[in-house]
Amino acid sequence: MNTGQKALDTRLVHPPDSQGEGRLLGAVSPPIFQTSTFVFDSAEQGGARFAGTEPGYVYSRIANPTVRLLEQAVADAEGAQAGLAFGSGMAAISSVLVQLLRSGDHVLVSRGVYGGTFALLELLAEKFGIHHTFAKLTDESAVRQAWGEQTRLVYVETPVNPTMELVDIAACARVAHEHGALLVVDNTFATPVLQRPLELGADVVIHSATKYLGGHGDVILGLAAGTDELMSQIRLDALKDFGGITSPFDAWLVLRGMKTLAVRVRRHTESAQEIATRLQEHPQVVEVYYPGLPDFPQQSLYRQQMHGGGGMVSFIIRGGDEAGVKFMDRLELCERAVSLGEAHTLVEHPASMTHAGIPAEVRREMGIRDGLVRISVGLEDVEDIWADLEQSFKSIT
Ligand SMILES: Cc1ncc(COP(=O)(O)O)c(C=O)c1O
Hints:
Layout: H1 8-13, H2 43-51, H3 65-78, E1 82-86, H4 89-100, E2 106-110, H5 115-128, E3 131-135, H6 140-146, E4 151-157, H7 169-178, E5 182-186, H8 191-194, E6 204-208, E7 222-226, H9 228-242, H10 248-259, H11 261-281, E8 285-289, H12 299-305, E9 312-317, H13 320-329, E10 335-336, E11 346-348, H14 360-365, E12 372-376, H15 382-395
Parallel strand pairs: 2-3, 2-4, 4-5, 5-6, 10-11
Antiparallel strand pairs: 1-7, 6-7, 8-9, 9-12, 11-12
Helix pairs in contact: 3-10, 4-5, 4-9
């Protein structure tokens, strides 16, 4: 079926299937091709497949039909020519960065990235001389000001985890392209339902599909999407030779998750908007960070590049980190856990958990203040989520 002209909600349910492999024997749910290798009809055919003169599968580290369906699904969802699947979000990030950079290059990075990405950037600097600078990339002049002579790539998360600061994607793309550099956007928080980085000029989009795309907290997987040229370079070098691939079963789980992505993200967003609004009124809350709030400081950028605030809310609790830890310990329904974007509401304390590997002064520069608690608002009834947060606030007064 050609669903090219259909809405995103429809395309998520009917992802592209260029070879018809997802509908073998009329299956409505795609087969899991749990195989490491593929038999050749003849030695000549094997040689032709290796040479690339005949299409067909060879070995699942190079390509696998179930994984390929997922790669087509993410490309379609992000409006890209091609997609790639990896064993984790970090495998996607490390493969993309190692492929696109070389020693001596400089990376301009949003002020705030996931802790694992921070550690990877440190490692690239220390071992390979690929240096980076964190900067507040909230408008074009800020991007120009932060630009360095050796900058070859801009790497951003937006909304930034966990402060929800927005990075101006279109401005980053304009300045990067003027200098012959590339823009890579980690779109894990917003998902293609709420933000479409490639349409705003980005070259590569990355996902930790562990989060909203998978959506059920049962899989670790990473995705990238971009042009045919960039994706095939990454596939042939970084993905094939570093080998950070995903399994057919995990690919299947994310394919299944993506069918309901649009519905889930809208429900996460609706509930997060309500929780953020109520937190703002709460006497034990000093400040709330949520892009969908009417007084969010980057309103015009928010309207320009997002279609909803998403499911993540951060707030500063009165009483600092000590109160934050107590608040978490008293929760009864919401789970104390890192990760995000799944059915359960998950609450974490970035300074001692996801961002603990980042030195305290760098954390403060990133805007992670004492007492910052992050909530991944789940799919439970919003009144039940709120009742749990409220009883926890009460119990620590
Ligand atoms: C924004 C973001 N990007 C990337 C990652 C890494 O993804 P994974 O855990 O799938 O390797 C995470 C993990 O929490 C994340 O929050």
